[in-house]
Amino acid sequence: MPIDKDYLNTLKERTKKVRVHKKFQFTGLAIAQLLNDEKHKSLYIKLAKKHNNQHLLSIAKDVSERKKIKNKGGYFMRVLQKTHPNILKNSK
Questions:
Q1: Between 20 and 30 A from 42 (CA), which of 8, 15, 51, 60?
Q2: Span 19-35, mean pLDDT?
Q3: Please, what is the average pLDDT of the chain?
Q4: C-alpha dist (Å) from residue 63 to 32, 54, 59, 75
């Protein structure tokens, strides 16, 4: 039974669309866009799920406004590590 190529194309297009259902997902995606780090968006979503969204956004906005930083995602994580060392530790 052959599969219609239009249907396959429809599925491919559907996977490109972002579906946000929770506030922390939106916050994580916003942080990824601010830092130009779409590759690690799942990390930012996970951080936003566990921690204060407004605080994370304020740090990301501060980092994104700095012009001399090349790796904004790495700098963001370094700022988190320095200011809030307990955020990045694994908790079981």
A1: 8
A2: 92
A3: 87
A4: 12, 14, 6, 7
Runs of H (alpha helix) within the chain: 5-16, 23-34, 41-50, 53-65, 72-83
Taking residue 68's Cβ as centre, other Cβ atoms within 10 Å add up to: 5
**Separation between Cα atoms, residue 41 and residue 30, nearest integer Å:** 9
Q: Show Cβ contacts of residue 75 under 8 Å, excluding neighbours closer than 6 positions.
A: 63, 66, 69
| Range 62-66 average pLDDT | 94
CB 41 within 8 A of CB 28: yes
Say which amino acid occupies 24. Answer: F
Nearest Cα neighbor of 80 from 88, 72, 90 is 88
Please state the rounded mean pLDDT for residues 70-82. 94
Phi-psi region of 71 (alpha: psi -120 to 50; beta: other; left: phi over 0): beta
